[in-house]
């Protein structure tokens, strides 16, 4: 199941600015996975994304927040204002129970998809 | 969407809806937090503060677009857009305040009148029986040549119940009967509404008790054994203060002790439209209430007093029930030819029962409903007109919006919101109007013996209907203008002030149609109100009006004191004699029901002596009344030939009758009816000689067509329930005390019910009821005309404002002001002319329809149209003239520069 990662109901289209950075739907999966480890705020999530995926997966910071908001509105993650170690207020996101289930479904989907694709790639001998 | 998910999402949505500012603040704070870190990172890499800032923003890919994306994630965009649209609509409507207020008032009137009409249509026709699964209940009726809705007798009911196989139960009840009720023995009984029902009545209808129990089959099994009664909910509340200990208590009904066994639920006010039984009694106790003394309730197959209903059982259909009923009726006709020869049987639905011809009220209501919808249509066309003209003057605004990328659907939605706002506010006003109208109907007190309940109320069904009406109005009024406004070619819209200034006359067609429709509709309404007014006026002068201010009436039913028929007649004789001897009484008389009283007249079956009856019918019928010798004088009804009823027409004297002129001309067109004879109850019945012909008066309604009527002497045709009429030279109320003392002297406990002046009854039946109808239709006509004038004025001034430049050019090259006036006005007048022509045709049609349907207002009244049409033309001409004159007075130099 591939879900559209960033806002699809836009009257004013921002998709024109850049091609989508990630395979559609995978950003959701990555965010859920990252938040499954510990609650984080947006900046920390972007750092984590960067460090985990390096140059291979280019996640625009711009699409990070709309994606987080979408996940929050779906009820998969919930947000809380907390104080950081630098004594600033930041919005921390936590995975919900619903989010855990979603993560399981999406990882399973991803595994199926990726194995299918690699299977096809091997077949064609490229 | 599962529940678990709602737990997370609902608070978020609510927060977005109700705390939008906070949500926005948090969004900003979150992004700022991110940017701050990003800038720090940039600074750490050695960028200048400005560069670091720019880099941070660039990494965001357009901060504002991202914010907008995040807002969209909230999924309440439709709502915030809607709220924006509503705000916008309110703002733009406020700019044209006068016009908006006018439209709102007309919408409120239109919706309110329609909602009130719906409450009546609902109450009289649509509302189902207050029982479980009311759709499966059907009415079983006996049919004759004269009526398709006759009742059945007790014997016939038992047979139907035994033979029929289509029903899971067959029940029967009488109409409400006046019963003398006393909570304690020995007190003077008061007249209350009782109803006799079959033992299975409540079980089959599915009505469960509020307290105690309802009837069981055993209650109705043996005659006279179970003296039990079930109370109606209202009676329990008002008479016993909702005391639950009434169950088991003994009360007296018509002098007999009855035990209260239960109370019917609030949800079951009874099966009748206008009356609510105070208590129910099983058929087995009918002896105590014997309805018609001349017939035996339990034995006589022609004592038809029962309303029979049945519940279709699973699998049975209306058509199978109908064919079965026809067979049963044929069986009856074979087995009992004497009383059933001409009779059939039928199964009727609730709708058929409620819209039968004999029940006249619903026709008024339907006329009222149709007219109110016409007013709503006129109001609607006005709103559409308003929106259309606003749409056209806003062409440029809409073109700009389209040009900067607004979707057409979004604009249509915006414009529809505007009409929705109008319709909502108008609908709220409409509910107020409907409430006032319904309240007004409830203030009409019906002067009857047993309380009459008007089944009109502002309930959930009516509110729902108003909401639906408002919504339909919004869409009907708003959609076409919205589509037209947004269809504008926006390049032209941006360039020109006036899109259709050149060569696009079609754009005005919508408005032209509206004006034509308004003129036509208001003409129809006005002519209808005039016809109704004339119909009622004619009726007001008829017959008994002359005596109305001087007659006191009081109703008696000695059966509640267990009088025998002989005792009853003696009581009446003594009462009449003593009242005639009382000072201040000019004359006194007994009647079953005075003309224009509220009760139905009895019907008399007869055969004119020597007539060869048509093969398919056994008797003719006519309305009748039992009266005594004082009647014609008291009611001031003239005897045209022969004589009236005399005191010598006693029980043992030769039987006589007085007929009205209509009757005489009907059966003996070119002969004198005096001396002719009729046989009562069929070819073998007793012979009665016609001794006089009385003037034809109005009997049931002031606007009725002349009807046959027969008067029989009370002594020869004794009836138990009678009305005493007393005529005085002055205020009839002064006779009330003497009457009470005379009655008390005859029998201290005899209840006097329904003591009131005849003027009360007359006013209700002949003045207030019909007068209300005339007022309503007249108001509708006036509202319609007002709307038409406004619509026409709007159209012409709109045309003028759009053609100002053209007018300037015409005047610059030599047109005179009168040329301009003619140019502008001619169009309005052409439209009025077309509308008038259509309205005339429709009005004439409606006239004929009303005459056929409701009244006897005579033929088509040319005078009415001769008065209305010029008035309408004059008024509409003025509406067109005012803006046209303004156009003619514009200086050409100004007009040319006009934008």
| Percent helix range of chain B | 40-55%
Count the E strands of chain A.
3
**Total strand count of chain B, please?**
23
Largest binding interface between chains: A-B, 34 and 34 residues
| Number of structural domains of chain B | 5
What is the string of SSEs of chain A from the N terminus onward? HEHHEEH
The CATH topology name of chain A reads Arc Repressor Mutant, subunit A
Task: Give the neighbour order of strands across the main sheet of chain B.
Answer: 4-5-10-7-9-8
**What quaternary form is this?**
heterodimer
Parts with pLDDT < 50 across at least 5 consecutive residues of chain A: 1-21
Structural class of chain A: alpha+beta
- Mean pLDDT over all positions of chain B: 82
Rounded to an integer, what's the Rg of chain A over CA atoms?
16 Å
Q: In percent, how helical is the residue content of chain A? A: 40-55%
Write down the overall geometry of chain B.
Answer: globular
Q: How do the strands of the widest beta sheet of chain A line up side by side?
A: 1-3-2
In short:
The complex is a heterodimer of chains A (126) and B (899). With 126 residues, chain A is of the alpha+beta class.
Structural write-up:
The complex is a heterodimer of chains A (126) and B (899). Chain A has 4 helices and 3 strands. By secondary structure, chain A is α+β, with helices and mostly antiparallel strands. Chain A has one domain (26-123): Orthogonal Bundle (Arc Repressor Mutant, subunit A). Chain A has a 3-stranded antiparallel beta sheet with strand order 1-3-2. In chain A, strand 2 (77-83) and strand 3 (89-95) form a beta hairpin. By secondary structure, chain B is an alpha+beta fold. In chain B, 52% of the residues lie in helices and 15% in strands. Chain B has a 6-stranded mixed β-barrel with strand order 4-5-10-7-9-8. Chain B has a 6-stranded mixed β-barrel with strand order 15-16-21-18-20-19. In chain B, strand 8 and strand 9 form a beta hairpin. The radius of gyration of chain B is 37 Å and the shape is globular. The chains are: A alpha+beta (126), B alpha+beta (899).
């Amino acid at each position: 199941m591939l879900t559209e990662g960033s806002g699809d109901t836009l009257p004013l289209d921002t998709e024109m600015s850049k091609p989508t950075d990630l395979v559609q739907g995978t950003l959701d999966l990555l965010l859920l996975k990252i938040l499954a480890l510990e609650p984080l705020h947006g900046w920390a999530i972007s750092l984590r994304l960067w460090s985990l995926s390096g140059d291979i997966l280019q996640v625009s910071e711009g699409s990070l927040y709309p994606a987080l908001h979408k996940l929050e509105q779906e009820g998969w993650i919930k947000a809380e204002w907390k104080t950081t170690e630098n004594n600033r207020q930041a919005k921390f996101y936590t995975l919900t129970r619903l989010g855990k289930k979603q993560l399981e479904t999406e990882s399973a989907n991803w595994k199926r998809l990726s194995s299918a694709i690699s299977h096809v790639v091997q077949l064609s001998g490229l | 969407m599962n529940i678990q998910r709602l737990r997370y999402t609902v608070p978020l949505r609510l927060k977005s809806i109700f705390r939008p500012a906070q949500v926005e603040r948090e969004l900003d704070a979150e992004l700022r937090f991110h940017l701050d870190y990003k800038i720090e990172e940039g600074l750490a890499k050695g960028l200048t503060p400005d560069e670091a800032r720019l880099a941070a923003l660039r990494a965001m890919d357009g901060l504002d677009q991202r914010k907008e994306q995040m807002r969209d994630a909230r999924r309440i965009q439709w709502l915030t857009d809607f709220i924006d649209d509503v705000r916008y609509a309110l703002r733009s409507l406020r700019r044209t305040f006068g016009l908006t207020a006018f439209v709102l008032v007309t919408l409120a009137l239109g919706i309110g009148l329609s909602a009130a009409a719906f409450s009546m249509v609902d109450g009289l026709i649509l509302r189902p029986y207050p029982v479980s699964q009311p759709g499966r209940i059907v009415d079983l009726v006996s049919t004759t040549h004269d009526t398709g809705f006759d009742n059945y007798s007790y014997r016939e009911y038992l047979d139907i119940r035994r033979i029929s196989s289509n029903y899971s139960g067959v029940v029967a009840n009488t109409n409400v009967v006046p019963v003398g009720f006393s909570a304690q023995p020995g007190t003077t009984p008061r007249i209350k509404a009782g109803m006799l029902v079959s033992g299975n009545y409540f079980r089959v209808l599915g009505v469960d008790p509020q307290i105690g129990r309802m009837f069981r089959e055993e209650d109705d099994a043996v005659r006279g054994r179970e003296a039990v009664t079930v109370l109606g909910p209202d009676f329990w509340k008002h008479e016993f203060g909702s005391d639950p200990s009434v169950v088991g208590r003994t009360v007296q009904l018509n002098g007999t002790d009855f035990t209260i066994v239960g109370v019917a639920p609030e949800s079951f006010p009874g099966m009748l439209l206008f009356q609510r039984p105070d208590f129910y009694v099983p058929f087995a106790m009918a002896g105590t209430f014997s309805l018609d003394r001349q017939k035996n309730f339990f034995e006589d197959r022609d004592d038809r007093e029962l309303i029979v209903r049945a519940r279709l059982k699973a699998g049975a259909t209306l058509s199978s029930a109908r064919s079965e009923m026809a067979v049963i009726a044929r069986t009856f006709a074979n087995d009992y030819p004497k009383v059933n020869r001409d009779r059939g049987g039928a199964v009727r639905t609730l709708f058929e029962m409620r819209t039968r011809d004999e029940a006249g009220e619903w026709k008024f209501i339907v006329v009222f409903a149709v007219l109110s919808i016409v007013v709503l249509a006129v109001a609607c066309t006005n709103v559409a007109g308003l929106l259309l003209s606003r749409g056209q003057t806003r062409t440029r605004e809409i073109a700009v919006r389209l040009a900067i990328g607004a979707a057409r659907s979004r604009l249509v939605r915006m414009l529809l919101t505007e009409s929705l706002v109008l319709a909502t506010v108008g609908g709220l006003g409409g509910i107020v109007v409907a409430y006032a109208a319904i309240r007004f109907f409830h203030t009409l007190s019906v002067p009857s013996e047993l309380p009459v309940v008007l089944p009109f109320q502002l309930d959930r069904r009516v509110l729902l209907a108003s909401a639906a009406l408002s919504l339909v109005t919004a869409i009907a009024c708003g959609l076409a203008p919205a589509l037209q406004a947004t269809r504008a070619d926006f390049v032209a819209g941006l360039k020109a002030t006036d899109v259709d200034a050149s060569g696009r006359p079609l754009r005005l067609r919508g408005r032209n149609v509206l004006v034509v429709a308004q003129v036509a509709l208001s003409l129809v309404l006005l002519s209808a109100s005039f016809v109704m007014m004339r119909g009622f006026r004619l009726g007001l002068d008829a017959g008994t009006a002359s005596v109305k201010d001087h007659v006191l009436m009081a109703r008696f039913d000695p059966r509640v004191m267990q009088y025998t028929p002989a005792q009853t007649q003696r009581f009446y004789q003594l009462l009449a004699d003593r009242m005639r001897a009382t000072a201040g009484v000019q004359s006194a008389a007994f009647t079953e029901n005075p003309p224009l009283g509220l009760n139905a007249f009895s019907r008399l079956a007869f055969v004119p002596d020597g007539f060869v009856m048509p093969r398919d019918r056994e008797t003719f019928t006519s309305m009748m009344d039992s009266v005594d010798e004082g009647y014609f004088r008291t009611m001031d009804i003239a005897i045209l030939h022969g004589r009236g009823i005399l005191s010598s027409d006693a029980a043992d004297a030769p039987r006589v009758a007085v007929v009205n002129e209509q009757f005489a001309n009907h059966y003996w067109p070119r002969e004198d009816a005096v001396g002719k004879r009729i046989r009562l109850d069929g070819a073998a019945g007793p012979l009665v000689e016609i001794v006089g012909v009385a003037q034809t008066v109005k009997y049931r309604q002031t606007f009725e067509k002349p009807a046959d009527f027969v008067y029989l002497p009370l002594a020869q045709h004794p009836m138990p329930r009678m009305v005493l009429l007393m005529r005085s030279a002055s205020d009839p109320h002064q006779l009330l005390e003497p009457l009470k003392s005379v009655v008390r002297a005859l029998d201290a406990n005899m209840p006097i019910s329904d003591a009131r002046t005849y003027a009360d009854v007359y006013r209700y039946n002949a003045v207030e009821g019909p007068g209300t109808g005339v007022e309503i239709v007249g108001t509708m006509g006036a509202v319609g005309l007002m709307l038409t004038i406004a619509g026409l004025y709007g159209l012409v001034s709109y045309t003028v404002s759009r053609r100002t430049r053209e007018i300037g050019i015409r005047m610059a090259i030599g047109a005179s002001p009168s040329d301009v006036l003619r140019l502008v006005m001619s169009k309005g007048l052409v439209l009025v002319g077309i509308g008038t022509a259509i309205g005339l045709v429709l009005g004439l049609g409606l006239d004929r329809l009303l005459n056929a349907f409701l009244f006897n207002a005579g033929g088509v009244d040319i005078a009415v149209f001769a008065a209305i049409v010029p008035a309408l033309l004059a008024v509409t001409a003025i509406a067109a003239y005012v803006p046209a004159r303004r156009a003619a007075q514009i200086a050409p130099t100004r007009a040319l520069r006009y934008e």
